[in-house]
Amino acid sequence: MGIESDKVVYEYLSRVGDIASRRQLPSSTRMRLVSELRNEIDRDRARATVDSPAAVRRILDRLGTPDEVVEAAGGTGPAGGAGRPSAAV
């Protein structure tokens, strides 16, 4: 797995954690959410034929924006997108 691809994943998961914190999700819920997302992303990356930042972004697009993921996990507050449900939760 490439460093640039890892950086894209790290930034996405950091945004999820930050948004979940601002929306006052309990710490255990935030940790579980980020862990489950990380596992799903890792599984999808392992199945992909190419591990590039673009391929990782396609995986993340399928999961939804960090706002959408947190909202689907029970975070309250305005969503940053159309409210598309996340495949991760």
Largest sheet properties? none
Low-confidence stretches: 79-89
N to C succession of SSEs: HHHH
Number of helices: 4
Distance between the termini: 24 Å
Number of domains: 1
Helix content: 55-70%
What is the averaged pLDDT score? 87
Structural shape: elongated
Q: Give me the count of strands.
A: 0
Strand content: under 5%
Rg of Cα set: 13 Å
Structural class: mainly alpha
Explain how this protein is built.
This protein is mainly alpha-helical. It has one domain (3-72). The protein has helices at 3-22, 27-47, 53-63, 66-72. Helix 1 packs parallel to helix 3 (53-63) and helix 1 crosses helix 4. The longest helix has 21 residues, at 27-47.
Task: Give a short synopsis of this structure.
The chain has 4 helices and no strands.
Question: What's the SSE blueprint?
Answer:
Layout (H helix, E strand, L loop, with lengths): L2 H20 L4 H21 L5 H11 L2 H7 L17
Helix pairs in contact: 1-2, 1-3, 1-4
Throw out a few tags for this protein.
mainly alpha, 4 helices, elongated, disordered C terminus
